[in-house]
Design brief:
With 141 residues, the protein is α+β, with helices and mostly antiparallel strands. It has a single domain, classed as Reverse transcriptase/Diguanylate cyclase domain (Alpha-Beta Plaits, 2-Layer Sandwich), CATH 3.30.70. Helices cover 43% and strands 26% of the residues. It contains 5 helices and 7 strands. The protein has a 5-stranded mixed sheet with strand order 2-3-1-6-7. A two-stranded antiparallel sheet has the order 4-5. The radius of gyration is 15 Å and the shape is elongated. It starts with a helix and ends with a strand.
C-alpha cells in the first residue's frame, strides 16, 4: 500500500466473506468449515496473479490486495471470483457443498487514508445492501 501511494500507482482491495458460513459449521462441523476455507483460498489464488496478496482477515473473511489494478479491473476480478466459487462445489465428507461469496471492491485514492481505512471501505461495501442477497459485488469509490 505504501509503495502504491508513494509512487502514485493503482492499488485495489477486495474484501469478501463466505455467505452463510456459520451454517456450514453449525450444520456439519468445524472440520468441514476448514475444508471450505481452504478450498475458497485455493480457488481465489487460481484467479489472482502471483503479485496479488490474499490473506484471511478473520473467521470467514478474506482481503486481497491487487497492485497495479484499477477499480474497473478489480471489479472484473471480483466477478470472476464470485462466478468460479459459486460454480464449483466443494467436496467434503458430507458430499459436495455449494458456496457463495460476496465481495466489496475499492481502490486507493489520491487522498491518503490509513491502510486499515481502505480495508474498512471495502468491508463496508461488501456489507452494503447485502440484506438477503448472496454472491454480490459492490464497488465503493
Amino acid at each position: 500500500m505504501e509503495r502504491a501511494f508513494r509512487f502514485n500507482r493503482p492499488l485495489s482491495v477486495l474484501f469478501f466473506d463466505i455467505d452463510d458460513f456459520r451454517n456450514f459449521n453449525n450444520t456439519y462441523n468445524h472440520s468441514t468449515g476448514n475444508i471450505i476455507l481452504r478450498a475458497i483460498s485455493e480457488r481465489c489464488r487460481s484467479i489472482l496473479r502471483t503479485m496479488d496478496v490474499l490473506a484471511r482477515y478473520a473467521g470467514d473473511e478474506f482481503v486481497a490486495l491487487l497492485p497495479e489494478t484499477d477499480i474497473a479491473s478489480a471489479e472484473a476480478v471480483a466477478r470472476r471470483m464470485v462466478k468460479k466459487i459459486s460454480a464449483d462445489k466443494i467436496a467434503t465428507t458430507f458430499g459436495e457443498l455449494g458456496v457463495i461469496i460476496s465481495i466489496g471492491v475499492t481502490a486507493l485514492s489520491e487522498k491518503r487514508t490509513h491502510d486499515s481505512a481502505l480495508i474498512d471501505r471495502a468491508n463496508n461495501a461488501e456489507h452494503q445492501d447485502k440484506q438477503g442477497q448472496k454472491g454480490i459485488v459492490v464497488v465503493a469509490l
